[in-house]
Amino acid sequence: MSTPTPIVVPDLLPRLRADLMAAGFTVAGVQAHLGPVVAGALMREQALPAERATRDDGHPLSALIRLFTLGVEVPFEAVDAALPTLRAQGLLALGLAQRSGADVAALCDLRPYGTQDQDWWVASDLSVSSRRGPLEPDHVLGIGAASLTLASWTPRPQVRRALDIGVGCGIQALHLRDHCEQIVATDICARALEFARFNAALAGQEWELRAGSLMEPVAGEVFDLIVSNPPFVITPRAARVPMFSYRDGGRAGDEIVQDVVRGVGALLAPGGVAHFIGNWEIRDGAHWRDRWHEWLTGTGLDAWVVQREVQDPAQYAQLWARDGGHLPGSWIHDELYAAWLADFTDRGVEGVGFGVVTLQRPQVEREPFVDLVEVTGPVAAPMGPTVLAGMAARTWLAEHDDDAVLDVAWVVAPDVTLESHRRPTDAQPQVMLVRQGGGLRVSRQVDTTTAALLSVCDGDLSARAALAAIDAVLAATEPEVEPEEDTGSGAQHDQVAVIRALVADGILVPD
Ligand SMILES: C[S@@+](CC[C@H](N)C(=O)[O-])C[C@H]1O[C@@H](n2cnc3c(N)ncnc32)[C@H](O)[C@@H]1O
């Protein structure tokens, strides 16, 4: 039987909040208390350094870390001292812990989480290391790397209605509160909804929680913003492969992500945007973009997909066979590993992509844009502002013709630099690169004309005037080159494709 979920007791929650805050049980407080080495190990789910560091110091913060992060039993009086207004009895009443002889044992994981301006706490089921055993099928996951990726990549403009599909512990919804008037959050798992209810109440927030699969609970409604960290893990539909609701949507292959791609459009208001993450299969020598074109066809949605990583079938199988607590070397682990490999072989899967997806319902009748890019290196954090600006730029480009692009006096973004590479013996550079310092940290090779154009993009000259001036200078300095036919507007329009790409990347921005 699964562990009971926390209980919202309105009178006790302010006391819990105040005690946790006073004890310094915040992201910054715990980091400072443990130090970078121990905190770093904990981030990698290595509990032993933290267990040793907090064992004997009698510090209230150590008691809370041991109880809620490490899943270690803590004496009643130590909990009373760490939570002086709530006391250990209050924790029991909230269903966060239970009595174990003279000790208190946590029933769930409770971790500080926050932004620069906010301190929150997130309750979820105890992790694999704290439980010391395999997880239950309805395990409610705490904040993981995928949760943090989605939170980082979600832009935060003010909107009216927002939806979080697969709310789980509620991390995405916590962030939505700052910039969305109304929040609806769904989950198929009743325990997840109970954790979400508790975490919302602990943060003093209100979300409308609905039970059901994917878009079913909100059918017929529209939203300005949809976020989802769906159960996207590709899982063999084979006997004895455990089904964990936090990672497995119960569909074959990557169909759960396909369902989200094909389904969210009906829920988006004109101009509305969906941000989600997921895995996709790369099959039989096809390109990863082929799968996306197949999924997007007929949706009418703008799409910007950033593939961040590709794993081969063995890497993917290794990762997910052990997730859930089945250790390498055990027969069940090896059986699961083999099931994943067989499942991939059946469908000719050669790789699994992971990335961040932004879909938008266009505000006006037009051809949707589709931009499928691969960026595997480090990117800015948070990425939300880049995604917001990138969607605005792509939308503008989709709604304006080449003449309009040439009419703008573009400006080189402040984080862009130009690198020239030449052999020491050569006078002229062989390679010129424009490099973005922030955002996706794009770098693009440019030719002489584009480098010259960028050098005059300071908001004074339209692109049309700048290109005409550059053409004139190049013609004067390279008289031996025979002019091609129709150099005028034809050459300018060739440059427009380059300008469009630079604008989409955020290398050129409007003044
Ligand atoms: C990876 S967790 C994400 C939790 C949280 N939103 C986050 O970002 O960390 C996926 C969540 O989707 C839920 N889920 C699984 N299948 C679902 C379905 N068919 N419809 C809606 N939610 C589902 C799971 O119960 C789980 O809470």
Determine the N-to-C terminus distance: 61 Å
Ligands bound here?
A: S-adenosylmethionine
The CATH H-level superfamily of the largest domain is Vaccinia Virus protein VP39
User: Residue-averaged pLDDT, rounded?
Assistant: 94
How many strands, which pairing sense, and closed or not: the largest β-sheet? 8 strands, mixed
Number of helices: 19
Q: Write the CATH fold name of the largest domain.
A: Rossmann fold
- Class inferred from helices and paired strands: alpha/beta
Tertiary shape: globular
Q: Overview of this structure, please?
A:
The chain has 511 residues and is α/β, with parallel strands linked by helices. It folds into 3 domains: 119 residues, no CATH class; 212 residues, Rossmann fold; 107 residues, Outer Surface Protein A, domain 3 (Alpha-Beta Complex). It is 39% helix and 22% strand. The protein is built from 19 helices and 18 strands. The strands form 5 sheets. An 8-stranded mixed β-sheet has the order 8-7-6-9-10-12-11-13, sandwiched between helices. Helix 15 packs antiparallel against helix 19. About 2% of the residues have low confidence. Bound molecules: S-adenosylmethionine (SAM). Belongs to the eukaryotic/archaeal PrmC-related family. Keywords: Methyltransferase, S-adenosyl-L-methionine, Transferase.
